[in-house]
Amino acid sequence: MFASVSAIVLCSVALAAEPAKAKIDSEAWPVVGGSDFKLAADLVARGEKDDKGVLHLANNTLLSVRLKAEKDCDVAVYWVDPKGQVVQLFPNRFDRANRLKAGEERVIPAPNKDYELVAVPTVGTGFDRLHIVAVTGNLPALPKGEVQGPFIAFRSESDRKDVIRAVRGVVVREKPSPGVKGDVQVAQAELKFRVQP
C-alpha cells in the first residue's frame, strides 16, 4: 500500500543545523533558540531553487529524506502549509522507529517500507515548509490532532501552537531519576518549497 501525502516536498540540498542563534519567522513554525547539536538533512527530489531559497517542484514528484545527527536522538518530520497547518509525516503508522544513532545516515522512507512521499500542488500563495526536529531524549507528547491516513494533522490554531510549544518551548516533564542526565537537546532544520500544478 502506498500513501500519497499532500504537499510534502524535499529538495536535493544538504542542510546542516549548526548550534547558533535562529531567525524567528512569525508566519510559520518559529525556530526558537536555534539548534543544540548538528543535524544534517539531505532532502532529495527533482526541482529548481529560486533566488529566495524556495524549491519549486512538479506535481507527483517522489521524495526521500536523508538524515544524520551528531548525537543519538529521536527525530520527527513535520509539513507546515502556507496557512500554518501542521502534519506530522514521520514517525507515522508505516514507520514508527524514529531513533537516529549518532553519525549514522537514515533515509525516510527506507526502501523496504510500504509507503512513499509524493508531492502535490501547494494550495494558496506563499510556500510550504518541511520542518525536521531531533531531540536527544524522547519526543515530547503532542496534542491528539486528527488522523489523516497514516499521518497526524494539527489543523486548529490551538493544536498548531501546542505542537510548536511542545517541540521547542517550555513543557512540564517528570524529573529524571538520580544519576540520569536530564538535559534534553534539540536540533532543527527547515526547507521552503512550492509544488507547481
Overview of this protein structure:
The strands form two sheets. Strands 3, 4, 6, 7, 8, 11, 12, 13 and 14 form a nine-stranded mixed sheet that branches. This protein is 6% helix and 37% strand. The protein has one domain (13-171, 183-196). The two termini are 25 Å apart. Residues 1-27 have low confidence and may be disordered. The chain is mainly β. A hairpin with a 5-residue loop joins β6 (73-80) and β7 (86-90).
Give the tags:
disordered N terminus, single chain, 5-stranded antiparallel beta sheet, 1 helix, globular, 9-stranded mixed beta sheet
- Shape designation: globular
What would you call the structural class? Answer: mainly beta
Global mean pLDDT: 75
| Low-confidence residue ranges | 1-27
Helical segment tally? 1
Largest sheet composition: 9 strands, mixed
Question: How far do the termini sit from each other?
Answer: 25 Å
Count the E strands: 14
CA radius of gyration: 16 Å
Residue share in helices? under 10%
Order of helices and strands: EEEEEEEEEEEEEHE
Total domains, how many?
A: 1
Tell me the strand percentage band.
Answer: 35-45%
